[in-house]
Write a structure and sequence with these properties.
The protein is of the alpha+beta class and about 300 residues long. It has ten helices and twelve strands. A hairpin with a 5-residue loop joins strand 5 and strand 6. The longest helix is centred in the first third of the chain and has 20 residues.
Length: about 300
Amino acid sequence: MPLALAVHGGAWNVPDDALEANRAGIERVLRQTWREMQQGLPALDAVEAAVRLLEDDPTFNAGRGARLNREHRVEMDASIMEGEGLRAGAVAAIEGVRHPVSVARLVMERSRHVLLAGRGARRFAREHGAELCRTRDLLVGRELERYLRVRRGERDLVDLEFRARRHGAPSDTVGAVAMDRAGRLAAATSTGGTQDKAAGRVGDSPVIGAGIYADDRRGAASATGWGEGILRVVLAKAAVDGMGSGLPPAAAGRRALASLARVEGAAGLVLIDREGRAAAVFDTPRMARGVVVEGGRPFVAVQRRARGR
């Protein structure tokens, strides 16, 4: 089977002064992960590796760079899924870990559960040797500044980050989908959540079927955007089912995004189908994304460019 990889750094109203950092961050992750896949890295390892790199990049709202909630705490969500046996693992509202996506994989591989949350998730991470850290190790100056501005009443930071004119809660999840030489599909996501979110708020990212889905018989998808809307239309599963019915990835993604109109949602998707075709689609002002398939040239962008990407 042909190799394929797609990564994203979030679908939202990316500020002009952050465009180059977003583009460069995605390009670096895409090229490094792709090189490792060409050397034999399986799809599941590839999506975890890509998301770990994005969690380490303070440009993105995941891991180091994650947003503060209303109580000045960093609570993060993440998930991972493999398409052969439909195994999945996730963590929600977890604090004090450097790589939430790797804790999600530990949940998948070393527990009987799919989703662990809050203090229980952190306890599990500690017991299984995950890398722990302090809140200040994850916090970057940009997010502290945003938090203080929102506390002072600058609601535009909350209301306008998804759409230039419409109201909505902001978020910029990171994620990846991959197909390896054996035709195995996998997906992973990680996020620091929305600006000014309530303590304990959980979005779509750790919810299997909403934020991610992977099925070797249909395809794989990772979603990003306003989690409350994504949850209500089960966006990732809808996109994967579209690919399973024969739609190419871009068409399946656009059809899934169209369902968000009913809940006034906004989102983006990266997708790979069972034939190794890949795409990125979004209906937010911008989306940091990168796509590469075997035999083709890598595509990286933040603003709108090619149809279907």
